[in-house]
Design goal:
This protein is of the alpha/beta class. Helix content is 37%, strand content 25%.
């Protein structure tokens, strides 16, 4: 990367590794709970981010390509309505779909700044270096942190479009999702726009197939949470002694991912003074992915202090983009 490109990038790292006491408390509480759980943020070390990029390319995983096509269709209108000169993306990842919005902002001569915010510092740096090459003159101020904790690290800026894509909001239970979006709203200025990608309630068979791909990439992604647990907290556990399970919870309209123990075993985490015995077939929940419809999504946004501007969806009613505004 040349010096000019380097001058266009700033990266803030509120954490290089989450405070072990905080992470330890979350893990300990989850593993001792009923059901047993692990926080899904642990998926995303460098290996986990790479695996998720592979998941997005799978034929069963319709979510990414459908949302991408929605953005291609409506990005120019979204950019025009927002009038934004700065794009802030929470959970930016590889920023593949983000480029559709950046292209639309470029066409409208509105692109000045981009703020990628992701828990994986490696991918924030990689994407920032790629984008300053692809968009001459673009200023990037990345944040490598947990957006549930570090929203205040979003830098001051101009007129903004804040986006959360990929159905990421579905990873939070309803009350937590409302609290989080309220916090996002608080960090925004009056007149700023917000774009929320939601996955819609559809045929459970189609949903379950998307999380049980034939190549087993999602299974590797799910088990990676144990590798991260081992690397970050010194947990003594073997990912190969667990099976990947993903099923649709009809009542809660959400996909749930679990790790099912294939034998009687114990997860030991000496640093936490924790020993968790597991019976054969006992499960640990690793992720929720709630699905929405129009009324549920609009109510979520209104409760968080936004007003709905536009609702975009695909012909098969699989994915929607909700464009909202802070009054």
């Amino acid at each position: 990367m040349n010096s000019k490109a380097e001058a266009s990038i700033t990266i803030d790292v509120p954490i290089t590794r989450e405070d072990p006491d905080t992470l330890g408390n979350i893990v300990k509480t989850g593993l001792l709970g009923n059901p047993r759980t692990l926080p899904s943020k642990l998926f995303y070390d460098e290996r986990g981010s790479t695996l998720f990029e592979q998941i997005c390319e799978l034929p069963e995983y319709y979510q990414t390509r459908t949302e991408h096509q929605l953005l291609v269709t409506w990005a120019d209108e979204i950019v025009e309505l927002s009038g934004a000169e700065e794009l802030v993306e929470l959970g930016s990842g590889a920023a593949t779909k983000t480029r559709v919005l950046l292209d639309a902002m470029t066409r409208a001569d509105q692109l000045r700044h981009f703020v990628p915010f992701d828990v994986d510092e490696t991918i924030v740096r990689r994407v920032s270096e790629e984008l300053v090459q692809e968009y001459p003159g673009l200023q990037i101020h990345g944040v490598a942190g947990d957006f549930l904790v570090h929203l205040e690290h979003i830098p001051e800026g101009g007129k903004r479009l804040v986006v959360i894509l990929g159905g990421t909001i579905g990873n939070l239970p309803t009350i937590a999702a409302e609290d989080f979006l309220t916090s996002v709203n608080t960090e925004m200025a009056s007149g700023d726009f917000f774009l929320l990608g939601v996955q819609l309630i559809t045929d459970p068979r189609r949903l379950e197939a998307a999380y049980n791909d034939q190549k087993g990439i999602t299974a590797k992604f799910n088990k990676n949470i144990l590798r991260v647990l081992r690397n970050q907290l010194g947990a003594q556990c073997d990912p190969d002694k667990f099976d990947h399970v993903a099923r649709f919870n009809q009542e809660a309209h959400r996909i749930e991912m679990w790790l099912r123990s294939t034998q009687d075993q114990t997860i030991d985490i000496p640093d936490l003074d924790l020993s968790v015995p597991l019976n054969k077939d006992e499960e640990i929940r690793t992720e929720l992915s709630a699905k929405y419809d129009h009324p549920l999504a609009e109510n979520l946004l209104i409760c968080a202090g936004f007003e709905m501007v536009k609702w975009y969806t695909d012909p098969d009613q699989l994915i929607s983009l909700a464009l909202a505004k802070k009054p």
